[in-house]
Every structure is written in structure tokens, then in C-alpha cells.
Specification:
The structure holds 2 protein chains of 2 kinds. Chain A is mainly α. Chain A has a domain of 52 residues. In chain A, 55% of the residues lie in helices and 3% in strands. Chain A contains 5 helices and 1 strand. In chain A, helix 2 packs across helix 3 and helix 2 crosses helix 4. The longest helix of chain B is centred in the middle third of the chain and has 16 residues. In chain B, helix 7 runs antiparallel to helix 8, helix 9 packs parallel to helix 11 and helix 10 runs antiparallel to helix 11. In chain B, the strands form 2 sheets. In chain B, strands 1, 2, 5, 6, 7, 8, 9 and 10 form an 8-stranded antiparallel beta sheet that branches. In chain B, strands 3-4 form a two-stranded antiparallel sheet. By secondary structure, chain B is of the alpha+beta class. Chain B is built from 15 helices and 10 strands. The chains are: A mainly alpha, B alpha+beta. At the A-B interface, helix 1, helix 4, strand 1 and helix 5 of A face helix 1, strand 3, strand 4, helix 4 and strand 5 of B.
Chain lengths: 119, 345
């Protein structure tokens, strides 16, 4: 019974003590606008720590990037970037090149078309 | 320009490739209410330049002239594949823009276009058998017609196509609905300022939504993380507030506002006072206009820990500051009085 009373009294006393030390007018430092150059430098040391790094690293590597090329990119991405990309790896992709095989297929198609036209 | 376009190539190659092809959609007639980003030109760029071309187009609409050739030089091509989406994001940021690679939705695309901000979508044009053979393409969305559910798309062939997102859904979905949004720093600052106004009006939900919108494109903003923490703290969402302050400290371990406000949060919680004091000590160390506020936090924590002499010294030092706002001075004097009255435990 005694122990139970202590359990109740102790948090109450702590709460009362804290209440006395926190003035009603006290506030945290208020919200502010951004500094003129809110940017983050590359931080290679941080790369290994961010969540999602492993998945993005694998995805970039699968596209043919070397480990140093992968690290250079990971170092410039924020934790939020990495987390977002890790949750949607389909976005880790390259666009804009027409692979060699398309030209070969096209050449075959044209050749077959010409042969059919002649015959 | 006599080169074949990818779409034509894909159509021709289709029978041999036995692949799945997404062609550029046929343009529909927009309504009179349709709007296009002001001043954006119809642009033509070679098919292997859709990365640099689309980014140049978007940046030009944001008021910055970066020729395709310039961007091409800084957008390395992954052999046989093209330009990485990640490199597009980093290239925009390195040119002083706020940018994000998001998972796009009709609503988020509409949001960008309503604010006259063109955006880049990545689409898969060809789903070829086997790995490493798919073909992707960047297109620019630069107009919207909400009444008909149309968006204007530029594929880089100098034509504008008004199309429903459903007509490109297969290709967009395959690219994870990748949506690259680009904003000027002034635009982001304006959103941040608006969020602060809403917070001061105690419209916390709206304020937080805008702070998080800022963080989408400016994830390194310590200020925005602290501001999100402040809103969460005012809503009583202590865990969210703590996470936001800690995220701010992840960007800048010495940021006074983040250190102080996290210390204050822990003090309010009444637990982890040792950590709170450690944070407050760091917040109170460097000189600056907010130092007395951090010293006030430190003094309160020392009081809560029963260290009355330390608290008295902290409040005394804070009151020695030359320029103190009336509210801060009164707060510190009240703390000093508490410290003088409290018995050393």
C-alpha cells in the first residue's frame, strides 16, 4: 500500500514542480523563414546511415553505375529523397536513349519490307 | 531534322520486338477554359536529349535560361539508357532551384500547373522483353484543362498534345508516376511565409500542410523542419514534434532553434531532463539574439532538476545581455526569482 502511494505521489510531485518552473508566458523559439542559402553540402559520410540508401544504391547499380558514381549521387540526396525513392524504385530510371537493338530491329524490318516489295 | 522519332521507330520495331509500346497520345481539343503556363514555348529536341531538353524547357519557364547544350554537359548519360531521373533532380537543385522527384497524381500535377509551374513526367514508352531494354522518355506537362480532365504534354517534337492522364497511365505507372517538380527559391519562400502567417493565426493544419510542401522541394531546410515541429508541438503531437526537431538537427546539429525547442519539448514532457539539459546547454552556448531564450530554457530545466544554484547562475547571466525584449526580460526575472526561492535539493 505504501509503495503504491509513492508511485502516485512521485509523478504528481514532479508534475507540480515542473509546473512551477514553466512560466505561462514561456514559449519555444518561434517559427522563422528560411536562411537565404538553405542548402546542404554533399556528405559522403552520411550516405550509409540514411534509410532507403541500400535499395536506391542497388537500383542505381543495376543501371550500370559504378560504386563511386552511385555514392556521388547518394551523397547529394536528402534522407527524404532516399526514403521516397526507396519506396518507389520504379522512379530510379534513365530516359532518353534509343538502345542499339532498336536500330537493328529497324534495319531488319526495313530489309524484310524491301524484299517483300521486290518479290 | 530528318532523324526518325522514337515513336515511329517503336511502331516499326514492334512486330519484331514482341514488346509493349506506349505511343504519344492523340491530342484532343481543349476547352476555352484551358490554361497553359505563360510564355512557355513549344520545344523540339532530339530524342536522345529529352532529359536536357525537358529540363531546359521547365527552367526557362521559371525564368532561367539554361541551353540544352549546357544541361546536356552536366547530365551524364547512362550508356544505352539516357539520363537518370535522379540526375535531373540534382541538376535542377544545383542551378539554384528547389526541386523534388515525387510520386505524381492528377491532383499534384494540377497543383503545379495551377501555379503556372510546368513539371516533368517520366514515361516508359517500350516494355521490351528482358532486362535493361525498356525505353523511357521525359515529357513536360505545361497546361491543364480541368473542365475536360486534360493536360497539355510536350514530347519534344514541337507539338502540344492535350490528353487525359489515363492515356499515358500505363507508361507513367511503369516509371513509378515519376513527377519532377521545380520551383524558384522565391516561390518556396513565399509558401513558407504563408505557412508562418497561418501558424500565427493558429490555423495549424493549413500551416503544417504548407510547411510540408516546402520540405518536399527543400528537404534541407532546418527552418521548415523546426517550424513543422513547432506546429506539431502546439497541436500536442509531441512525438511528431520531436521527430521534426531531430530531423532539423540531422541537417544542422548546432541549430539553436531546434536544440532549444527540442529541449523545451522534453522539459514539458517531464522526462529525459538530462538530455533536455544537454540540448539546452548547446543551444545557450553561442552568442546571438536568441541566446537569452535558450538560457531561459536551460534555467527552467535546471530548476526542474533541482539544481537551483545552477539555474540562478543561468538566469543571472541571461539577464546581463545588453538587448533584451521586455517579455524575455520578465520571463528571465521570473525564473531568477524561482531559482532564488527554491531550496537546493
Amino acid at each position: 500500500m505504501m509503495k503504491r502511494s509513492h508511485r502516485l505521489v512521485l509523478p504528481l510531485a514532479l508534475a507540480l514542480g515542473l509546473g512551477a518552473s514553466l512560466p505561462a508566458s514561456a514559449e519555444r523559439i518561434a517559427s522563422k523563414p528560411d536562411a537565404p542559402s538553405a542548402a546542404r553540402a554533399s556528405d559522403l559520410a552520411r550516405v550509409a546511415d540514411a534509410a532507403g540508401t541500400g535499395e536506391v544504391r542497388l537500383a542505381l547499380g543495376a543501371l550500370g553505375l559504378t560504386p563511386s558514381e552511385v555514392d556521388a549521387r547518394l551523397a547529394q540526396l536528402s534522407d527524404e529523397d532516399l526514403s521516397r525513392l526507396a519506396g518507389n524504385l520504379d522512379q530510379v530510371q534513365a530516359a532518353g536513349a534509343v538502345p542499339q537493338y532498336i536500330w537493328i530491329l529497324l534495319a531488319i524490318f526495313l530489309a524484310v519490307s524491301i524484299i517483300i516489295m521486290i518479290v | 531534322m530528318s532523324r526518325f522519332r522514337p515513336a515511329a521507330l517503336l511502331v516499326l520495331a514492334l512486330p519484331a520486338a514482341s514488346a509493349c509500346v506506349s505511343l504519344a497520345p492523340r491530342s484532343r481539343a481543349p476547352s476555352p477554359q484551358a490554361s497553359v503556363v505563360p510564355g512557355i514555348p513549344l520545344m523540339t529536341f532530339a530524342e536522345d536529349r529529352c532529359g536536357a531538353g525537358s529540363l531546359a524547357l521547365v527552367l526557362s519557364a521559371r525564368g532561367a535560361s539554361h541551353p540544352v547544350e549546357e544541361l546536356e554537359a552536366v547530365l551524364p548519360e547512362v550508356e544505352g539508357r539516357g539520363v537518370l531521373s535522379v540526375d535531373m533532380l540534382l541538376a535542377a537543385r544545383s542551378r539554384g532551384f528547389d526541386a523534388a522527384l515525387l510520386t505524381g497524381t492528377p491532383r499534384s500535377l494540377q497543383r503545379e500547373l495551377a501555379a503556372a509551374r510546368p513539371a516533368i513526367l517520366m514515361l516508359r514508352l517500350l516494355d521490351a522483353p528482358g532486362e535493361r531494354r525498356d525505353i523511357y522518355h521525359y515529357v513536360v506537362a505545361d497546361g491543364a484543362d480541368p473542365s475536360r480532365g486534360l493536360f497539355r504534354l510536350q514530347y519534344g517534337d514541337g507539338k502540344a498534345r492535350w490528353a487525359r492522364l489515363a492515356s499515358i497511365e500505363d507508361g507513367w505507372k511503369a516509371a513509378g508516376h515519376a513527377l519532377l517538380v521545380v520551383r524558384t527559391r522565391e516561390e518556396t519562400d513565399a509558401v513558407l511565409a504563408r505557412a508562418m502567417t497561418l501558424e500565427s493565426e493558429r490555423r495549424f493544419d493549413e500551416a503544417e500542410a504548407l510547411y510540408r510542401e516546402v520540405l518536399e522541394v527543400r528537404p534541407y531546410s532546418v527552418r521548415a523542419w523546426v517550424d513543422v515541429g513547432n506546429v506539431a508541438a502546439q497541436r500536442g503531437r509531441r512525438a511528431d514534434a520531436e521527430a521534426a526537431y531531430r530531423r532539423a538537427l540531422g541537417v544542422d546539429a548546432d541549430d539553436r532553434d531546434a536544440l532549444n525547442n527540442l529541449a523545451w519539448l522534453l522539459l514539458e514532457g517531464g522526462a529525459r531532463l538530462e538530455e533536455a539539459e544537454s540540448l539546452a546547454l548547446r543551444a545557450a552556448a553561442p552568442p546571438g539574439p536568441d541566446r537569452p531564450r535558450a538560457q531561459d530554457t536551460l534555467g527552467r530545466i535546471q530548476l526542474a532538476r533541482g539544481r537551483c544554484d545552477d539555474a540562478a547562475r543561468t538566469f543571472r547571466e541571461a539577464l546581463e545581455a545588453e538587448a533584451l525584449a521586455d517579455g524575455t526580460r520578465a520571463q528571465l526575472q521570473e525564473g531568477a526569482a524561482q531559482a532564488a526561492a527554491c531550496p537546493q535539493r
